[in-house]
């Protein structure tokens, strides 16, 4: 979608845009959009100090009216955390047939981390978020996204929508990848707000969902309710897993629309984090082959 100044954060941020048919990294600061002479992948190979110097050497101005906004992701993997808020612990326990597992994760020293998306699959601001048609309960989950460089240093923040199929996950915790990882299940944007100019540790998170212009959900929470520190979560991700161009990490949610709400095609999801920005997506049903399960194989020697 076109870059609209009113939709962007007031703090300095990196934007990925399509300008004259080329994908370009730009700096949004002081109401100006200027070209950065590096790709996001290149910047995230640097230390924070080196990255800051490179960003401050931005090049010529870009006209926002002639730029299309893209998701602020290049080759970065996207990972996610679960059960980082008391509310998410309660919600996961209510949906699950193995409730104690989530209580133990909430209280454990080691956090829950899981792969969410390849960078090229991430949906940006204004894009369509996906819904699995083989799930009876689908919800958007508003989250603070944390961008780290190759050294594991936190360099930026954004809003994220971790689309989830709660009914699939509730059947069995081992179904988590199918509940969380599918086409258009991850949205990040509108921009990567630079960490040296922002502190979201006490920011309000709000999610509003409308259907045919009718409000169906409106809730708020606060990042301060998180029981784990985002920088520490990032350190765990990098601890035994090299990430040469950094990674985005979704840090968990405390806002989940209660049943009977489930996402329908056309729903508009607005996620806003104070000082970080506003991410808006329309929901769509993603294509599905119709396969629900693979044929069960016979035990070795069976039928002989």
Key traits:
alpha+beta, 5-stranded mixed sheet, 10-stranded mixed sheet, globular, 304 residues, Fumarylacetoacetate hydrolase, domain 2
Write a structural description.
The chain is globular, with a radius of gyration of 20 Å. The model has no long low-confidence stretch (mean pLDDT 91). The chain is 17% helix and 34% strand. The protein is an alpha+beta fold and 304 residues long. The protein starts with 12 loop residues before the first strand and ends in a 19-residue tail after the last strand.
Number-wise, the strands total 17
CATH architecture field of the largest domain = Alpha-Beta Complex
Give the terminus-to-terminus CA distance: 61 Å
Mean pLDDT: 91
Query: Count of DSSP helices?
Result: 7
Helical fraction: 10-25%
CATH class designation of the largest domain: Alpha Beta
The string of secondary-structure elements, in order, is EEEHHEEHHEEEEEEHHEEEHEEE
What gyration radius follows from the Cα positions, in whole Å?
20 Å
Shape: globular
Largest sheet, in brief, is: 10 strands, mixed
Low-confidence stretches: none
Binned strand content: 25-35%
Kindly report the CATH topology of the largest domain.
Fumarylacetoacetate hydrolase, domain 2
In the residues, how many domains can be counted?
2
Give the class from helix and strand content and strand pairing.
alpha+beta
CATH-level-4 superfamily name of the largest domain: Fumarylacetoacetase-like, C-terminal domain
């Amino acid at each position: 979608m076109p870059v609209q100044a009113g939709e962007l954060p007031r703090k300095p941020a990196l934007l990925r845009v399509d300008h004259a048919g080329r994908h370009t990294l730009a700096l949004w600061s002081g109401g100006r959009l200027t070209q950065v002479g590096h790709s996001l992948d290149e910047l995230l190979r640097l230390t924070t100090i080196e990255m800051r110097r490179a960003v401050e050497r931005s090049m010529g101005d870009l006209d926002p009216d002639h730029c299309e906004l893209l998701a602020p992701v290049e080759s970065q993997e996207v990972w996610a955390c679960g059960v980082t808020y008391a509310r998410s612990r309660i919600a996961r326990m209510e949906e699950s047939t193995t409730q104690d597992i989530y209580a133990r994760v909430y209280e454990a020293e080691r956090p829950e981390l899981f792969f969410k998306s390849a960078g090229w699959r991430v949906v940006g601001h204004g894009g369509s978020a996906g819904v699995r048609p083989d799930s009876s309960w689908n919800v958007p989950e508003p989250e603070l996204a944390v961008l780290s460089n190759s050294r594991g240093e936190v360099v930026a923040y954004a809003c994220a929508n971790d689309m989830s199929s709660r009914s699939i996950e509730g059947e069995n915790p081992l179904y988590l990848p199918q509940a969380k990882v599918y086409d258009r299940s991850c949205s990040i944007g509108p921009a990567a707000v630079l960490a040296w100019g922002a502190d979201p540790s006490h920011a309000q998170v709000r999610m509003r969902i409308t259907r045919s212009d009718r409000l169906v959900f409106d809730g708020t929470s606060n990042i301060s309710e998180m029981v784990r520190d985002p920088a520490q979560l990032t350190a765990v991700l990098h601890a035994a897993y090299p990430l040469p161009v950094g990674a985005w990490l979704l840090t968990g949610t405390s806002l989940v629309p209660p049943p009977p709400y489930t996402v329908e095609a056309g729903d508009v999801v607005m996620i806003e984090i104070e000082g970080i920005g506003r991410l808006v997506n329309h929901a769509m049903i993603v294509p599905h082959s119709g396969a629900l399960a693979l044929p069960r194989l016979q035990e070795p020697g069976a039928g002989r």
